[in-house]
Design goal:
This is Mechanosensitive ion channel protein 8. This protein is an alpha+beta fold. The chain has helices at residues 2-11, 13-39, 44-99, 104-126, 183-188, 196-208, 216-220, 234-248, 258-261, 267-278, 288-338, 344-378, 418-421, 449-458, 497-517, and strands at 141-142, 148-149, 167-168, 181-182, 211-212, 230-231, 255-257, 285-287, 386-389, 392-399, 403-408, 413-417, 427-428, 436-444, 470-477, 481-489. The strands form six sheets. The chain has a five-stranded antiparallel sheet with strand order 12-11-10-9-13. Strands 14-16-15 form a three-stranded antiparallel sheet, with no helix packed on it. A two-stranded antiparallel sheet has the order 1-2.
């Protein structure tokens, strides 16, 4: 609660200072000059100054209310729209940094076990028990906390430094303002308890930071080079995935297992990482290809989220400018009323001008209002989302208040007015859950039922599909062709369309292999033909390309 109040107070501190200062000045003016104003009715200067100060105070109060409302609405919009994506992106960054560094959980467990062992040895030694010479080590002394101090010389790695790999965002940064947020605190945040202050910090980390890995060479060096650990391209993401696999997996192992992850992460975090990378925790293992795809997707998502936040910040600034113009006009009108300049004739003139303005720019104002509702209320997509509009798949390239820029499959830019988009159905692949797919095929009805049963059992790839793949008979044509279809559900949506077609191609290749092994193919079987009459053998008809009858 304190941080929520501090965030809004800090944001409107200047307006609050102006209100307090003008309030004190107006109070002093009231007690110093009000009696003089009442006794000297002819003193127009004091009366005008009194009205001017009231105008300034009213204008400052309205400006304060406007600023507070904009900040509250912007904070609510950011929390409802981006909090989940930011939390997931920062957790991905934490996992990448942790898995690329030393096995801190294993080191800590070894250190605790070593402390308990040496404490037991010290207790036995004090009790007078006879110990082997190799267990007697005078360098170990118990501390007040019960832990042992000294060096066991057992070859264990040094005790992990405090805070390394347990804080999200750049550990290598020297700037205090760029420090991240503890991972424990990140887990506890949700839509209800996240403050505007913390939300601003999270957005700043995503917009200004990049994915990084922890390289022990960099951590141990005196001259830190952040470029050695930053991930700025998909190629660097693939390279980072390879380093993580070599760092986490056992030597010469082809998979990462749950116990390998638990050397770096807590059990709950390890299970969550399995869910993120493989899509399920049933297998309890991670392949090199899955890890590479996950790191690349984390990088792409982080970059798209940063672009989205930047575009949203620009849109909020433009909206703030529009609100400034409207509030400024309202303040000006109130000033005219307080200063008694706005007479009935003047108000009539203003109203007539408003009617003319509404006639000329009413449609424009309506368009702007609908565009604002589309961007900040409906908000059907973000930058980087794959959408389908009018049967055309496009990637959101840039979002503005009035227009949205899309990138088609051939990199052609298409600009849609947001008012037009508000009336069109929009299919958003990124926000869709794991999506389904279908592969159709056909074979002759004479194919044995045993082969069809074996084929159904073998068309499964659990790495890419959910269990329960369905094979259904769709149709029978001409009493010869059986049309069947494989219905499956990907462990991903179709945001990455290339990956979707790659996985589908693997299924088709596997089906072709199964068909060849089972000798299932489509061939034209012999047909029974009944001939009722035949032309005479000595026919005079000949093809049109022949110029003379064939010689016998």
């Amino acid at each position: 609660m304190r941080k929520r109040v501090l965030y809004f107070v800090y944001g409107i501190r200047k307006a609050v200072q102006n209100c307090i200062w003008l309030g004190l000045v107006l109070t002093a003016w009231h007690y110093m000059f009000d009696k003089a104003v009442e006794t000297e009715r002819s003193n127009e200067f004091l009366s005008t100054m009194n009205k001017v100060m009231v105008c300034m105070l009213v204008g400052t109060l309205l400006w304060l209310v406007k600023t507070l409302m904009v900040k509250v609405l912007a904070s609510s919009f950011h929390v409802s729209t981006f909090f989940d994506r930011i939390q997931e992106s920062l957790y991905n960054q934490y996992v990448i940094e942790t898995l690329s560094g030393p096995p801190l959980v294993e080191i800590r467990n070894h250190q605790e076990e070593e402390d308990r062992t040496m404490a037991e040895i010290w207790r036995l030694q004090n009790a007078g028990a006879t110990l082997p010479p190799e267990l007697k080590n005078p360098n170990f002394q118990p501390t007040k906390s019960g832990k042992m101090s000294g060096n066991a010389g057992g070859g264990l790695p040094p005790r992990p430094s405090k805070g390394v790999s347990f804080r999200v965002s750049s550990q290598l940064s020297k700037n205090q303002d760029e420090q991240g947020i503890p991972i424990d605190k990140l887990h506890k945040l949700n839509h209800k308890n996240v403050s505007a202050w913390n939300m601003k910090r999270l957005m700043k980390i995503v917009k200004n930071g990049v994915l990084t890995t922890l390289d022990e060479r960099v951590l141990d060096s005196s001259q830190e080079d952040e470029t050695l650990t930053q991930i700025r391209s998909e190629y660097e993401a693939i390279s980072a995935a390879r380093k993580i696999f070599r760092n986490v997996a056992k030597p010469r192992a082809k998979l990462i297992y749950l116990e390998d992850l638990m050397r770096f992460l807590q059990e709950e975090e390890a299970l969550k990482t399995l869910q993120l990378v493989e899509g399920s925790v049933e297998s309890e293992k991670i392949s090199k290809a899955s890890l590479k795809n996950w790191v690349v997707n984390a990088f792409v998502e982080r970059r798209a989220l940063a672009l989205t936040l930047n575009d949203t910040k620009t849109a909020v600034k433009k909206l703030h400018q529009m609100v400034n113009v409207i509030v400024g006009a309202v303040i000006l009108l109130i000033w005219l009323v307080i200063l008694e300049i706005a007479t009935s004739k003047f108000l009539l003139y203003i109203s007539s001008q408003v009617v003319v303005f509404a006639f000329l720019f009413g449609n424009t104002c309506r368009t702007i209002f609908e565009a604002i509702i589309f961007v900040f209320v409906m908000h059907p997509f973000d930058v980087g989302d794959r959408c389908e509009i009018d049967d055309v798949q496009m990637i959101v390239e840039e979002m503005n208040i009035l227009t949205t820029v899309f990138l088609r499959f051939d990199n052609q830019k298409i600009i849609y007015p947001n008012v037009t988009l508000a009336t069109r159905p929009i299919n958003n692949y990124y926000r869709s859950p794991d999506m389904g797919d279908a592969v159709d095929f056909a074979f002759h009805m004479a194919t044995p039922a045993e082969k069809i049963a074996v084929m159904k059992q073998r068309i499964i790839r659990s790495d890419y599909w959910y269990p329960g793949t369905t094979i259904v008979l769709m149709n029978l044509e001409n009493l010869q062709i059986l049309k069947m279809s494989v219905w499956l559900r990907h462990r991903m949506n179709h945001q990455n369309m290339g990956e979707r077609w790659r996985r589908r191609a693997l299924l088709v290749e596997e089906m072709v292999k199964i068909f060849k092994e089972l000798d299932i193919e489509y061939r034209l079987y012999p047909l029974d033909i009944n001939i009722r009459e035949m032309p005479p053998l000595n026919s005079s008809r000949m093809p049109s390309s022949w110029t003379s009858p064939p010689c016998n």
